[in-house]
Amino acid sequence: MDFKLVTCTHIGVYGHALTKGGIYQAVDEETDRFRIIGNHHKRVWIDKCYFSEGEVEVPILSSWKFDDRLEDFDLIEVTLTFNNGMKRWCLITTPERLVKHFEQSHLDPPGFNIQHLIIVRTINNDDIEQTLKHLDEHGEIEKATLFLG
Question: Could you tell me the superkingdom of the organism this chain comes from (predicted)?
Answer without folding.
Answer: Bacteria
